[in-house]
Amino acid sequence: MGKRVTVEDIARELGISSMTVSRALNNRPHVNDVTREKVLNAAKRLGYVQNHIAKSLVLRKTNVIGIVIPKISHFFFSEVIRGIESVTFQHGYQLLLTHSAESTDRESQAIRTLESQRVDGILISTAQNVADYDVYRQALARSTPLVFFDRCVFDLGASCVHIDDRESARLLAAHFVQHGYQRIAHLAGPHLVSIGKERLEGYRMALEAHGIPYDESLVVTSGFNERGGYEAMAPLLDRPDGARPDAVVAVNDPAAFGAMKAIKDRGLRIPQDIAVGGFTDDPRAEMVEPGLTTIRQPAYEIGVRAAEQLINHINTGQADAEDIIISSQLVIRRSCGCGAENSPPASPDRAE
Amino acid sequence: MGKRVTVEDIARELGISSMTVSRALNNRPHVNDVTREKVLNAAKRLGYVQNHIAKSLVLRKTNVIGIVIPKISHFFFSEVIRGIESVTFQHGYQLLLTHSAESTDRESQAIRTLESQRVDGILISTAQNVADYDVYRQALARSTPLVFFDRCVFDLGASCVHIDDRESARLLAAHFVQHGYQRIAHLAGPHLVSIGKERLEGYRMALEAHGIPYDESLVVTSGFNERGGYEAMAPLLDRPDGARPDAVVAVNDPAAFGAMKAIKDRGLRIPQDIAVGGFTDDPRAEMVEPGLTTIRQPAYEIGVRAAEQLINHINTGQADAEDIIISSQLVIRRSCGCGAENSPPASPDRAE
DNA sequence: TTGTACGCGTTATCAA
DNA sequence: TTGATAACGCGTACAA
């Protein structure tokens, strides 16, 4: 930062006090109209830009909200960010973006950095192997409002915005069961992260409800990306004919895409040989061949609600934590082989 | 922000001066080992978190870099952000993310906000209707380093990181010409933004080089999203048989996807009736049916180079502006009907 | 090795 | 309506 124009400079220029300048610049009362005019002109002429750093220091409020994203490249998260931004923009907050890259170490570091930056609150979706909750507790103890989204940690007294992952997974798995699939595999997320746990549990519930025994060997941890989905399919596809799964419920769409590629690479057909389902409703889901049946998570809305909740916490000091559940939707396409082509809005409608 | 522990608090607790505490916490020399140990213990015990705001104020350096993104939901930009983040993380910079939403007003506001936040530098890709360069000039005049990426403004003395848009568009259009297409349309970006201008120019050059007259009615401004691409196709598809274009070069992939949908909705085939090409290499390009021939822009690398260049400017005061050209690549898939299936890395390899 | 004085740029407070 | 003073939390410069 080079030499910058300060209120002091403007005050000196006009032969008045810096307080009057400050009042004029901030549209505060008790300033003579003529004086105000002179101040604004001088500010423009000198190229004054308010120093928000100094303002934050004295006001003890930065108007900055921190975000911790586990995987920037995931479409879901970029949509959440878009939702968050729309709300924070309206409320005059800025966004400090950090990336944990699925690492708990980097996540902890990010949270500490955000606290150090004195953000007014933090929006976070945990890294996939989250295990130690101390860093969250500490932030909360220092009264930094925290709101989780999608990947949550419950019982910390922090709000969380997410879909009903368990019920959604149950619904998806039940859909396969009801259409006659017998050996339904699950590509699972890491079991430490909320959505991994919940989606697995929903899958189990669906099987149980329909009297299908839970077979541990049909559950393979894939993680959340394409490569993981691809690799997790190997042990399942290596099974002999008749022992191979006839359907796969993936923990999310990227994993499902990887699985679909693995299935095709073996020369098998989707859904005739193996049906596939996912989670997210990634833009690719309607373009992949065949279209991917999936649970649509309204990412933009999740971002909006999370940001609103956080700002609410910020304003009310410490409002009660809420568990906010956003409704999801089963989108049926051809990958599940269940006939109905209940297509989602086509591409042109994805644009704003 | 609630009541926070300060260096003063620690100093009082230990009966020493705040300077010694500051030195100890920052790993500076001239501190007795025993004293340092005591300070670090007390800091941990009291839950001290450095106030980066105060530090920034006194050091006149925030270690924050501002980003201005025209369209968060565009895959290309989320990849750029990922690249930027990888560099800034390594160098200890934080990211303040702003969104112009393609509005020049919001963009100007964003830049002023970032200046107000005293970011050490700004990375920006302009809004599509950029026309007034004053806000950039002012930022530069106040010695806020500025680096453009993808959508640039030249001749301002700011660095710019981008592919060779003109040459890439020329290459793509020439590819169509060489494969016998005669009536090649162009879905153009707004003509005010660099990539809109350059890509149109490359398209013209390719036609000219092959003796095909430039037909203004074959150039329709689509903007950068799916809906724009879809709608821009209407006048082209409304032409009678024989006057319809036999190929379309879209300004980017989202527009190309919209165009493909429009073509299919008319019951026409790709590429037999109309061939399509795009720009970006969006993840959907290899999944759409048929696969989209496109110019691959290495988004991640663009982000990396832009961030490196900015940090370089920050460190060297004001190094010379550079025009940094990242090499792009023509990825041939089936949408251009040119045979060669030069497939890009498959999905599983997209993951990190 | 440790401490004192001061300034970073702004606003709140209280006095004029 | 305006101004003087102090404070936000920290680090630099210099003194002890």
Question: How would you describe what is shown here?
Answer:
The structure is a homodimer of 352-residue chains. Helices cover 42% and strands 15% of the residues of chain A. The relative contact order of chain A is 0.11. The radius of gyration of chain A is 26 Å and the shape is elongated. The two termini of chain A are 37 Å apart. The model of chain A is unreliable at 341-352 (pLDDT under 50). In chain A, helix 5 (75-91) runs parallel beside helix 12 (299-315). A 6-stranded parallel β-sheet of chain A has the order 2-1-3-4-5-11, with helices on both faces. A 6-stranded mixed β-sheet of chain A has the order 7-6-8-9-10-12, sandwiched between helices. The first copy, chain A, is α/β, with parallel strands linked by helices. Chains A and B meet through helix 4, helix 5, strand 2, helix 6 and helix 10 of A and helix 4, helix 5, strand 2, helix 6 and helix 10 of B. Chain A binds a DNA duplex (16 and 16 nucleotides) through helix 2 and helix 4.
